[in-house]
Amino acid sequence: MGLGYLKIAATTGNGVGPVANASYIIKDKNGAVLYSGLTDENGDSPVYSLPAPDREFSQSPQSRVTPYALYDVSIRQKDFQSVDKIDVQVYDQITTVVDLNLEPYIRGQDDADQSFVTPPPNVALPTTTRGQIGTNTLPDGRVLTSVIVPDYITVHLAAPNTRAANVRVRFSDYIKNVVSSEIYPTWPTNAILANIAAIVTFALNRIYTEWYRSRGYDFDITSSTAFDMAYVPNREIYANISELVDSVFTVYAQREGFRNPYFTEFCNGTTSTCNGLSQWGTVSLANNGLSVLNILRYYYPKDLILSNAPTGVVQNSYPGTPLRVGSSGTDVRRIQTYLNRIRQNFPLIPAINPVDGSFGTQTQEAVKVFQRTFNLTSDGVVGVGTWNKISQIYTAVTGLAELNGEGERIGIGNTPPTTVLRQGSRGSDVLQLQFLLNYIAQFYPTLSSVAQDSVFGANTANAVRSFQRLFGLTADGVVGSATWNKLYQVYQTLQSGDSPSGGSGNNPIPWPGVYLRQGSTGSNVSTLQRLLNNARNTYAQLPFLRVDGIFGANTNNAVRIFQRAAGLVVDGIVGPNTWNALARLA
Predict the structure, then answer these.
(1) Where does the pLDDT of residue 123 fall: very low under 50, low under 70, confident under 90, or very high at 90 and above?
(2) Handedness of CA 451, 454, 455, 457 (dihedral sign)
(3) HSE on the CB side for 347, CA within 13 Å?
(4) pLDDT at residue 472 above 70?
(5) Does the structure show a pLDDT above 90 at 172?
(6) C-alpha distance from residue 348 to each of 185, 255, 344, 367, 376 (Å)
(7) β-bridge pairing 166-170 and 221-222
(8) Who is most buried in 265, 358, 420, 530, counting CB within 10 A?
């Protein structure tokens, strides 16, 4: 009997809001409680040891022993929908991560548990295989002008013509999910990397050729293995797969002289065979010492090459060499700034002060905590995987902060508009609607984002219907009083002290519920000035303020300096995001 490991990570808001103090239970299949506890401030549980079959049973397709043990995980937190994860797979010598993005509970919603069952990997494919539903000659439909890794991919949770939900998933998280669904995490590293490359390339081929969107569908790919690749919402992932994907999710295969990602047909190679890559075949090739590229060339054309696609997720390109203790320069300063901003959402990451571009032991410890939180090897070295992950999380947390500031600029008040909106409507109320839909979509993956163009088109109508279905309203795509009231209720709940997007959470000084700006006066301004003075312990560039309860030019300047240093929207307005960032330093 072997030994595997299991960790629970609970977040919300596209994975950037840790859910602290969530209670969890880990049970065996007989119903016995093995472990229980509460998540920490970063939303994590400890790593628990659990019995699992020996690793050898996952190394050969001829094995008749199921190579993983099954456990059940339940998680509860009063402000979020409950989740029961059934049949979590734990492998010998592998850390399984039950990475749950929890949906906030909104008053009036049915508090129905979400239950997810993970199917075993390497299941037999239907007679119609992936290889028959793709091409390496470009279609007559739309084709993007260049290959780019998108921030998000939209997945249809069934075959193309089957009625089912669409979910919007961060691209790298989608790849981790598919790889964890398609292969065993115990395989040799080069076998895993070859499969990751095939899966990334397959997805980018669908996106680049706009395979579904050019045919009138509102998604990029499906979860059906008859057409695409296995994707299971909220499934567990494996720490080693997660770390590898963070390093290579921009790497794809193409033929020399061709622009498009190659259509990387693949199958498991046992119960299903095809003209492309055999997943089980990659194991023997890796064990025989073949490189990732040579494994791919074994199954695909000999002129196949591996290329890097640009991505909107990573803010700046990896500098080319790892950053570690002793490194210095602008790249170190950038990482320090990013980590300090991420710390506002994940408070167990130590503060780095000063941000001076010098990689010392303080920066090393912050990197180590970040790595532990996001399932990377905790060595304190910023290699390509850690660089990409820090950049990705920084982009996500500041993106949510941008939305907070945007709501203030648009003028979202406390009372919904009375205008009835429908397809064809235009104007400022439509812009408010589109903002609310986009903000709420950050917390509910089945809701899609829309262009904020003040025009109520077909995409906005579809987003309204999805919102109405999710919250138990008549799904007619018309925004009347009931829909306006629900939009405002959900938005205000997410903005309140119960949400990571701008509430008090564990902050000792909760947001007072009013926006402060130049010209404001009173006790709330006095508290703000004290918080700004306290923040000088972390951000030495902040000026010292006289605590007089008057939001004048000096306070406005200090707010802007803090917002810039903390990676927030620099507008001089103190809403929940700026207030909570200050309060967490208190």
Answers:
(1) very low
(2) positive
(3) 15
(4) yes
(5) yes
(6) 29, 45, 9, 11, 16
(7) unpaired
(8) 265
Q: Tell how strand 114-117 and strand 83-90 pair up.
A: parallel
| CA atoms of 290 and 293, how far apart (whole Å) | 8
Specify the DSSP element, H or E, that contains 174: helix 171-182
Paired residues of 448 in beta bridges? none
pTM confidence score: 0.80
Number of Cβ atoms within 10 Å of the Cβ of 567:
18
224 CB-near residues (< 8 Å, 6+ apart): 158, 159, 160, 162
Residue 229 has pLDDT above 80, yes or no: yes
| Structural tokens at position 378 | 């905790």
CA distance linking residue 184 with residue 192, whole number of Å: 8
Consecutive H or E run containing 49: strand 48-52
Which amino acid is present at 60?
S
CA dist list (Å): 408 to 345, 403, 413, 495: 21, 9, 8, 12
Burial letters for 486-525: b for 16+ Cβ neighbours within 10 Å, e otherwise?
A: bbbebbebbbbbbbbbbbbbebebebbeeebbeebeeebb
Question: What is the C-alpha separation between 77 and 345, in angstroms, rounded?
Answer: 18
Domains of the chain with bracketed CATH: 2-117 (2.60.40.1120), 130-308 (no CATH), 330-406 (1.10.101), 411-495 (1.10.101.10), 523-583 (1.10.101.10)
pLDDT one-digit tens code per residue, 321-336:
999 999 999 999 999 9
Distances (CA, A) of 338 to 313, 417, 562: 14, 38, 14
Confidence check: pLDDT of 427 > 70: yes
Segment (H or E) for 180: helix 171-182
Name every residue whose Cβ is closer than 8 Å to that of residue 142 and which is 6 or more positions away in sequence. Answer: 210, 213, 214
Give the integer Cα–Cα distance in Å for 407 and 411: 6
- Structure-model confidence comparison of residues 507 and 45, the more confident one: 45
| Sign of the CA dihedral running 511, 514, 516, 520 | negative
- The Cα 273–Cα 278 span in angstroms is 7
Inform me whether the pLDDT recorded for 461 exceeds 90. yes
DSSP string, 114-148: EEEEPPPSSPPPPSS-GGGS--SSPPSS---SS--
